[in-house]
Amino acid sequence: MTNRFMRSWNIYCLFCAVLVIVPSLAFPQVKPAKSPPRTLTPAKQTAVSWVDANQAKLIDVNQAIWNYAEVGLQEYKSSQALIDLLTANGFTIQKGVAGMPTAFVASYGSGKPVIGMMAEYDALPGLSQDTVPYRKPLVENGAGHGCGHSIFGTASTAAAIAIKDAMVKGKLAGTIRLYGTPAEETGIGKVYMVKAGLFDDVDAVLHWHLGDKTAVGYGTTKAVVSVKFTFTGVAAHASASPHQGRSALDAVELMDIGVNYMREHVKEDARIHYVITDGGGQPNVVPPRAQVWYYVRANTHKDVENYYAWIVDIAKAAAQMTKTSVEVKVDSDTHEILPNRPLAELLYSNLTLVGAPRFTDDEKMFARKLQETVEQEFGGKFDRALSEEVEPLPDRPEQGTASTDVGEVSWKVPTIGMRASSTVYGAPGHSWLNVAASGMSIGQKGMVVAAKALACTGIELLTNPKAVEAAWADFRARTKDTTFVSLIPPGQGPPTAIR
Ligand SMILES: [Zn+2]
I need a surface site. Which of 75, 218, 377, 388 has the fewest CB within 10 A? Predict the structure, then answer.
């Protein structure tokens, strides 16, 4: 889909305010009472030490997945790289879960509580890029990690193993589970893993994402349904016997026109986009088959349901107009993220304990060169190269403009995510800039921060039943008046291929 946290981050700051703090030397000040120093508990220290001690290995795993750059449902080598790391560290693996060969669940421990950690590892088509600050594909038209899922998968896996290490050394009870979730970019993996019941016994779920800032994701996303409309007509010679043909492509075009008129009458937060995946073979044959693929998004799933029903009516009408038939197939359907305040506060406290990544002058120079490519194209000027601070926790959930299948998990189990500064400040989502950053030290530093913050939060959830209870109380309060609706027909399994 896209970076779920990349919303209005591409702010071109034209003014830079510098705060000058002048220390008072003449009048000694009475020092205010300090709050007690916040330190890592022994269990958290164990987890953080595991991440530090294994950094070289984690970087290797990230580089391997970054190089594989496998797109959704084809992440065989990428998922195996994470499975190998988990197996070597004592986890039990279930491969090929929920009908997807590249989905897996890795577990350590037994009984309650069950803490889930989510890993993603799919790449994006057309974004192959070397780790240089100018556009240079490694493979022409190849895929690349433009959403940073190589560091995502590696850090989440590291967090799970670090928690396991703390469990062993501190004799902590419970279960830590790493969910290997494929095909996030098309919203497939987690949706079908939830449907398969793989999250039914989980107490809380953690995740993170590449970002241009370090922050807890106390916010929501757009709900989205991914649906394909396949029209069937009758082939005929387009010049000699058009009266004996029925064009499926005409139906697609009329449908798209209908939807484009519908746009005027939907709420401003709706986003409807499509690609024609099959428009026929060649002009002298009336196309007997044509297909159009839609994403329909809105801030609430309820609105998506309404728009979806309207668009299905338009498709049927287009079929009637052209004397063709239409088949409607929902590939995936995911809700907006359900925020969780207690989990957000818990993750925030651990994230501030770990701190944001710090970058070298060389890394900042590299980032500046990447930013210049955006500035040259779109104008403005960024006020910093890389973010090195933890952003304050927002008081209210923020509304995002993208979507993620994390949403579906969040309506099943209290879920919280974060982002760590791991790409250039202001980098567009799904861009080659993110591929470059996540394949080198900038991304790796964010990966390490995320692994530590997630591990510390996971340990707290594992050892503090009150934290889990608070998360569930918030979850129940937010869901009590809602009915969960999925547009995926009951019993339908995941698609075997995206295209
Ligand atoms: Zn992503």
Answer: 377
Query: Residue 228 CB: number of other CB atoms within 10 A?
Result: 18
255: exposed, middle or buried (Cβ count in 10 Å: 0-12, 13-18, 19+): buried
What pLDDT shows up at residue 35?
A: 52
Compute the distance between CA of residue 392 and CA of residue 378 in angstroms, rounded to an integer.
Answer: 28
pTM for the model stands at 0.90
Structural domain includes residue 146: yes
Whole-number Å distance, alpha carbon 207 to ligand 1 midpoint, is 11
Question: What's the 121 CA to ligand 1 centre distance in angstroms?
Answer: 9
Summarised one tens digit per residue, pLDDT across range 283-329 is 999 999 999 999 999 999 999 999 999 999 999 999 999 999 999 99
Distances 269 to 136, 265, 359, 398 between C-alpha atoms, Å? 35, 12, 36, 14
Which parts of 173-317 are beta strand (E)? 174-180, 204-211, 215-216, 219-220, 223-232, 271-278, 289-298
Closest CA to 352 of 457, 422, 423: 457
- Strand, coil or helix: 431: coil
> Which of 287, 303, 334 is where one domain is finished?
334
Distance (Å) from CA 4 to ligand 1 centroid: 7
Domain enclosing residue 416, as ranges:
42-220+336-479
Alpha-carbon distance 237 to 247, whole Å?
Answer: 11
**Residue 108 contacts residue 166 (beta carbons within 8 Å):** no
At 452, is the secondary structure helix, strand, or coil? helix
CB burial string 306-317: b at 16+ within 10 A, e below: bbbebbbebbee
Q: Are residues 313 and 422 in the same domain?
A: no
Q: E strands along 8-132, which residues? A: 92-95, 104-110, 114-119
Find the helix or strand (DSSP H, E) in which 416 lies. strand 415-421
Distance CA(407)–CA(401), nearest Å, equals 13
pLDDT score at 497? 85
CA of 143 from ligand 1 middle (Å) equals: 14
Residue 67 sits in the same domain as residue 145: yes
- Please give the distance, rounded to the nearest whole angstrom, from the Cα atom of residue 17 to the centre of ligand 1: 32
Ranges assigned E (strand) in 138-267 = 174-180, 204-211, 215-216, 219-220, 223-232
Q: 2 in a domain, yes or no?
A: no
Cα 156 to ligand 1 centroid, rounded to whole Å:
13
Q: How many whole angstroms from 180 Cα to the centroid of ligand 1?
A: 14
The answer as to whether 388 is a domain residue is yes
β 114-119/289-298 pair status = unpaired
Q: Is the peptide bond before 113 cis (omega within 30 degrees of 0)?
A: yes
Listed in sequence order, the residues at least 6 apart from 349 whose beta carbon sits closer than 8 Å to its beta carbon are none
Residue 118: predicted pLDDT: 98
